[in-house]
Amino acid sequence: MANVFDAGNAFGLMRQVEVGSDEVGADTALFVAPIAELAFGRYPIAREIADYHRSRA
């Protein structure tokens, strides 16, 4: 995950993910999607994300 930003009431928190090589000049793909699409499992941040989902519903 490269970045997290707030896209306002319409989209909420978004995350930016870069997929590809770390080599200089190599091609990478950039994806931006709602943080609500992430699966955190039992990581400490999971509860905070679940609370955020409930507040947006």
What percentage of amino acids are in beta strands?
Answer: 25-35%
| Cα-atom radius of gyration | 14 Å
Average pLDDT taken over every residue: 77
Give the N-terminus to C-terminus distance in angstroms. 25 Å
Following the backbone from N to C, one meets helices and strands in this order, namely EHEEH
Low-confidence stretches: none
**General shape:** elongated
Main beta sheet, described? 3 strands, antiparallel
The main sheet orders its strands as 1-2-3
Number of strands: 3
Number of helices: 2
Tell me roughly what share of residues is in helical segments. 25-40%
Domain module tally: 1
Coarse structural class: alpha+beta
Structure description:
This protein has 57 residues and is of the alpha+beta class. The chain has one domain (3-56). Helices cover 28% and strands 33% of the residues. Strands 1-2-3 form a 3-stranded antiparallel β-sheet, with no helix packed on it. A hairpin with a 7-residue loop joins strand 2 and strand 3 (28-34). The relative contact order is 0.19. The mean pLDDT is 77.
What would a concise description of this structure say?
With about 55 residues, the chain is an alpha+beta fold. It is built from two helices and three strands, in the order βαββα.
Summary tags:
57 residues, alpha+beta, 3 strands, elongated
